[in-house]
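#struct-help
A.M.: can someone run this one for me? Single chain, 563 residues.
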Amino acid sequence: MNAPTTYEQLTEKIKLLHPFVEPKDVSIYNDPIYPTNPHPKIATIASLMNELYTLFIDMQYIPASSVSFAPHTTNPISLRHAALFGLEKQVVDLLQMLPYHDGSQPDWNFGSDNGEFLFGGEFDDDLRGKEESIEAVWWRKCVDPLYYLDVDWKGKRAVGWNLRCEDVDDEGEEMGEECEEEEEEEKEGWLMTYNHEDDNEEDKDEDWDDDMTDEDESSSEVSEDDAIESEELLALHQETIEAEAAEQKEAALQAQAEEAERLKRHTLDNDPRDERLLLYLRPWHVTLNKLGNHGTVLFLNTHTFTISQTDQEFGNLCDFKHNAIPYLQNVINKFKTLDWIPGGLYSPIHGDEYLAYKNLYTTSGWPNAFDPSKFHALRKQFEKSQDQRYHDQEPLRKFCEHVGTMQSRELSKLHHASAVQKLSTLPQSPTHIKEKEEFQRIKEQCGKEFLPEYYKPISIDILTSYLKSVQQQREEGRSEDEIKGLKTLIAETKEAMRAKGFEERDWIIYHMRREQALEVEEEVKEGFKWTSAWRGVSVDLDVVLTQEDLEKMAEERFDRYHE
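D.P.: on it. Structure tokens below:
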């Protein structure tokens, strides 16, 4: 959906959300700059966000100049935009108290494209002022914060990102499993159930009284204790019947509620409006950051003061939620103790980079005697060594990339054969036209990867352009080490020009690149991620691949693809 670019466009779009979103009178926000009497928990949450941003500054991740802290006197939050979305006052109070990042790049970044905030999510957009494009920022924040997420049915969108999570914890940790265990215990309960089949036991022995002797009759007299026990059993029986009746009534009410929900979903599923228009945040929810590169968004419920941690990449609306204050305290502590490093390094997910940065901090005196100048000097040395390491590992990457190309070509053969087979068995009927077109597309696309008629020998013009580039770089004063990669490419091109087909050319380049990779020093090979070669397929430099090996790898991948 196109985001609005003017206030008038925004007003028209919000009309489409009625009755889900109802604008408020701007006068309810009686503090134009900063709230005079915010809710204590709102004030605490704002204070913790300030502390987190300050921590990022202290850790040298972002410069102090990139953050504006409240009160935002000269550039306040636009209250008319808040009123247009019907935001509750507590939400607006928080927005007025939050810090805002200017969107500039941090000093380093291993995470989301425009600067990692937390687990792939980025720093929130600046909601202050009336500058151009502010309408699009408000629209995205209040209507579609997960704007790339596709939800299966409109109803889930139209309930307004209710984020009804089951589990709330006290310390900012996940409590899902414990809650499930407690629910199971509640379901089992303590109430004894009455077995109605036992009522038929007397019928089976109805002739028993006729066969009794006098002695049997005297021994069967009911004692006073037996009578008391009988009364207790009758009482328990009555309680059981009443409990079962209550359960049946509750089940009936639950069935009615489920039917009402089903009808509501049916209504929403058949809403003629564009389903993207049914997206909105409830007026007491607010996000604390933005999506970033398919990352995490933190949703705060200002009624319950809980945070829902939502991962856009995997499509999770909400797995669990946390009490907001201890959750934010826990996040701050993770960074303070270097369990997490700003910029997208989380232990133990990230190995070498995480350990390197943790060592930079501890060597520079973190946390009590931290020396920012020493930290920056050590970081520059580290980045320089990383750049050199990346340069030295180039032959390894080239080798892995080429193995990936060869494996992909073998996979194309299998997809081509599968498409040909399915086309031969597909019924010639109008109902299968689209299916036939898709198989035909796969056949043609994959055939271009290996069929002889699509093979084109390397042109002499390509080789000439490489030779000219080498000469030009030498004239510019480049060293032989700087043009080493281009010289290697020229040698590969000369040899590959002799090939008569795809496979022959692949194997010529394979053996050349393997020899180049073998010459890389062992120290440089350490830490290189060989599994990144081709969709997780590991490459072993010490083993010479054969055509049979490639075919086997492709077959395994093809089988997984069609599972």
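A.M.: thanks! Residues 150-213, 215-220, 272-278, 315-319 have pLDDT under 50 and may be disordered.
D.P.: also worth noting: The CA atoms of residues 369 and 539 lie 45 Å apart.
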